Please model this.
Amino acid sequence: MRGTMLYGPRDVRFEERPDPTIIEPTDALLRISAACVCGSDLWPYRGIDAPGQPTPMGHEYCGIVEEVGSAVKHIKPGQFVVGSFFASDNTCPNCQFGYQSSCMHRELVGGAQAPWLRVPLADGTLVATPSVPSDDLIPSLLTASDVLGTGWFAADAANVKPGSTVVVIGDGAVGLLGVLSARQMGAERIIAMSRNAPRQQLARAFGATDVVAERGDEGVARIMDMTNGLGADSVLECVGTQEAMQQAIHCTRKGGYVSYVGVPHGVELGGEGLFFAHVHLHGGPAPVRRYLPELIDPIWHGKINPGRVFDLQLPLAQVAEGYRAMDERRAIKVLLWP
Ligand SMILES: [Zn+2]
Ligand SMILES: [Zn+2]
Model:
């Protein structure tokens, strides 16, 4: 098959790769229905945390099970499945606590920007849909694999409840789907922080009641103005930079909740600032697997349409253009059809 490899900064190639096969008896082999480029793929693409060697890319996936290993009991060939970027057994204590992305046997799933994918720990990792979906459902089902699951975790970890006032920092796909998630959880006021017109529009379509374009201290001042000087109940930090994290902590009310789901780059928190902030902090790599069943259901019944974050769709062979479009912020998120 041909698959996506990152050779170095801004050097993405779609090239001949070995066909994946079943290696462990707990594996499944998927025929990918759609793949996509993630905001987190842009870090190595830009040369930050770049791997030292050519690396297969892609960790968000859905598709049809082609073959399973001899120890796989529940997942069956022919099923349409969605899984998370961390394979998990879904049985160890950490999985039982609901933190499958910290599974004691977790494995990172890589190489999903390709027509075929090997998924370890298939029974614990994959969730089958009720039947094989029509093509129009596939983009939304694909978001459940990461960006919707991560946005949902961001809202859940920030304790969004009916009536909450919520701030979402970050207007990438995760932030936008954090808005959608907060809306689904019944938030009354959702303030999206964005200075990009198409993203502001999508945030409003997903349920944002207000948009704030200011950042940093000015952004904090605007939120304080809008919340009677108190700050928001729940703040979702969906970027991963020092500025975004500081902004999140500073615009949360006393006793409120900050979640953080962007992979941190250069974030450092001082003890004294944390001590006097009086906020709850909860975040990390989203345990997407925990939420898959509850996310697939409303997508399946057309109640939510998170696939709208894909504002550019390309044939998989044009994956390099997909990376360019996201790097240059011409696209929010790029869907790739094999
Ligand atoms: Zn991702
Ligand atoms: Zn586990």
